[in-house]
Design goal:
By secondary structure, this protein is of the alpha+beta class. 37% of the residues lie in helices and 20% in strands. The chain has a 5-stranded antiparallel beta sheet. A 5-stranded antiparallel beta sheet has the order 6-9-10-8-7. A hairpin with a 2-residue loop joins strand 11 and strand 12 (342-348).
Length: 661
């Protein structure tokens, strides 16, 4: 009791400054023995790092003559840490990391104020972009989360650029005002290790930003990589913003005479003080270690979501000057096409590899979101009917995606061109239909992530040199929980290809992709666009025309005249039948993609009779190209006040207008 009475006021007078553990990793494949030469070399390395780091905030050293006994170490303090703080928290890291890793032969530790690493192999000046940990605040920003995401992404990109400035020594921290009514400011930090080059730091920051972006609707997050870290919070965080926080949030208090007397009375108990501080420090370190272990266990348990871990390796991060050279400075002659969020250019790398570079428009308000979404998803999926993402580039305001080059461009360039359409005989069209179906089946059921594409249409189907299809443009794709039948979300996609329950109510499920596939299938067989202007006023869409032909028993008239004489009629009519099943008004009656693939692959399976499809028509004052349609819809949430005549869905004999909500 006497010791406790002494320790409490002393603890008030001399508060302990423990830095919080942000993350750690131990190299547990091998270990060293106590008293070994490796143990003594490690002790010497740690002592030298701490002793010399305070003067510059950074130090590397090594000790040992024999390779298997040699130890390499690196210590770096936060860019704006004072020499006193650097010395204090370096000592803490020096004690904490061996406690965390025991006799592991290597380890690395992130504290609020410093980073420490040691290993038995040299890692100096080597870029390490594997993701150690992604920390995130469980709370989601409620007011304008989409805008908050874009503002956080802009902040992180600016921090990346600032930290890559040689004068910044790999460190940048700042805060910006946000449009969120919940939180008016967001604070951010970016830091890489000072033995790396500017290019290496840029690559590490790019991968950190891509991994962290998935959580930027949260109130805070941090990406810890082997060579760098990035962090943002809606509140000031130590040590970088600690002084700002205290200055703005805490009113200064006058010194208390009673407190000074109390401290003086107990000043003679220095021995007891030392004991108390030792006990309290040990206890607090134990609490912090326990918290860190629990945090680690929580993260490990969440790795099934397919997001944790590194999405890219450093070879997948392209430099901007490399892509500028490959595309001839993005010359118009190399332009392959243009979509709602940017243009695509052909390029040739220095080793002769042909690539397609998607350059997102700087004027697109949605560009950052679509870019991050596409990188996050496409990097984790591999299928012969999905376009292959080779890498990305994030430098300054530029956001670029690098894909495999497909020489035949998109399906619509063949299908809706009177001359090129002749190249697509029935066998090629059937192979394209089957390939698209298998690609969607992979996204919905077979990949490690369950993905809804949300924008399946002819110009998002690319063709390789053998006219095999590959689904592209995952900017609007959405991860979908496997235990959910549908979710409510903002509407994004292209008019004419969107399922009615999604277009009108925002109800998204895999059946929305099935509907879009049905529209594309009917376009492939007929050679006509869904919104073909040559349709009569009575039959405003391809779906309505197909349904009337089906009811009359005259579906042969729907087959493209260029192939009708030489295609197997039974197989073509079966495809049309499957297409009508996919576009039925009731989502529950549409087949899953697994059933679609089976129906298209065998002629022995009996097909159910389709019910009437939903005719989604566009009624706008003035012309609106498909490209503009995609942009308009992708920017229009459900509560956007659209004109009552903007979108109508015809089911059975009634017409239901989409009213403003």
């Amino acid at each position: 009791m006497f010791i406790l009475l002494i320790c409490i006021p002393l603890f008030i007078c001399f508060p302990l400054g423990l830095s919080e553990i942000r993350g750690y990793e131990c190299k547990n494949d091998t270990g060293y023995k106590d008293g070994s030469r490796y143990a003594s070399n490690l002790k010497r390395v740690l002592d030298d790092l701490v002793k010399n780091a305070a003067s510059s905030g950074f130090n590397t050293t090594s000790h040992g003559e024999i390779a298997k006994e040699k130890v390499y170490g690196l210590l770096q303090c936060t860019g704006d840490a004072s020499p006193q703080d650097c010395s204090k928290f370096s000592q803490e890291a020096r004690i904490t990391l061996p406690q965390l890793c025991g006799n592991a032969i290597g380890g690395q530790l992130w504290l609020d104020t410093c980073f420490l690493r040691y290993d038995n192999v040299s890692f100096f000046s080597d870029l390490d972009t594997h993701v150690i940990s992604i920390l995130r605040n469980p709370q989601t920003v409620k007011a304008n989360p989409g805008g908050f995401q874009n503002e956080v992404a802009d902040l992180l990109r600016n921090l990346k650029d600032k930290a890559c400035d040689p004068a910044s020594k790999g460190f940048a921290a700042r805060s910006v005002t946000t449009s969120s009514s919940d939180w008016h400011r967001v604070f951010g930090l970016a830091e890489c290790w000072r033995d790396l080059s500017v290019e290496q730091c840029g690559s590490c920051f790019s991968i950190a930003l891509i991994n962290l972006y998935h959580y930027t609707e949260k109130e805070g997050g941090e990406a810890l990589l082997g060579s760098c870290r990035m962090r943002y919070e809606i509140r000031p965080f130590p040590p970088v913003f600690a002084s700002n926080a205290s200055a703005s949030q805490i009113s200064p208090r006058k010194p208390s005479r009673n407190l000074a007397i109390l401290c003086g009375v107990f000043g003679g108990g220095l021995i007891v003080l030392a004991v108390c501080l030792f006990i309290i420090r040990k206890k607090m370190i134990s609490v912090i270690l326990l918290r860190s272990v629990r945090l680690r266990q929580t993260e490990d348990s969440e790795r099934h979501d397919g997001v944790s871990g590194s999405l890219f390796n450093s070879q997948m991060v392209f430099r901007l000057d490399t892509l500028i050279e490959a595309t001839g400075k993005f010359q118009e002659v190399n332009k392959l096409g243009e979509g709602g969020f940017g243009s695509v250019y052909k390029g040739v790398t220095s080793d002769g590899t042909e690539i397609a570079v998607k350059k997102l428009s700087l004027s697109s308000g949605q560009g950052t979101r679509e870019f991050m979404n596409e990188v996050k998803l496409v990097a984790k999926i591999q299928h012969r009917n999905l376009v292959q993402l080779l890498g990305c580039c994030v430098e300054g305001p530029e956001r670029l995606l690098v894909y495999e080059y497909l020489p035949n461009k998109s399906l619509d360039t063949f299908l809706f061109n009177p001359e090129k359409r002749k190249v697509l005989d029935w066998q090629k069209r059937h192979n394209i239909i089957i390939g698209i179906a298998r690609g969607l089946l992979y996204l919905h059921e077979d990949s490690q992530l369950r993905i809804i594409h949300r924008d399946v249409k002819a110009n998002n189907i690319l063709l390789d040199d053998k006219l095999n299809p590959k689904i592209a443009d995952f900017g609007l794709a959405r991860l979908f929980p496997r235990d959910e039948t549908h979710v409510h979300t903002r509407v994004a996609g292209t008019y004419g290809y969107m399922a009615p329950e999604y277009a009108m109510l925002g109800q998204l499920s895999v059946k929305a992709d099935v509907y879009s596939f049905g529209v594309v299938l009917l376009e492939i067989v007929s050679g006509r666009k869904n919104n073909d202007l040559n349709f009569t006023q009575e039959m405003q869409s391809l779906l309505e025309w197909g349904w009337r032909l089906y009811k009359r028993g005259n579906l042969l008239n729907m087959i493209d005249p260029t192939i009708v004489k030489c295609c197997p009629h039974e197989e073509a009519l079966r495809c049309i039948h499957v297409g009508l099943l996919c576009v039925q008004a009731d989502a529950a009656t549409r087949p899953a993609m697994s059933e679609v693939v089976l129906m298209l692959s065998t002629s022995s399976m009996a097909l159910p009779n389709p019910t009437k499809p939903a005719f989604v028509s566009l009624s706008l004052s003035g012309d609106l190209s498909p490209k503009d349609e995609a942009v308009t819809m992708s920017r229009a949430p459900l509560d956007t006040q659209l004109p009552c005549s903007t979108l109508s869905v015809c089911c059975s004999s009634s017409i239901i207008s989409l009213e403003p909500r």
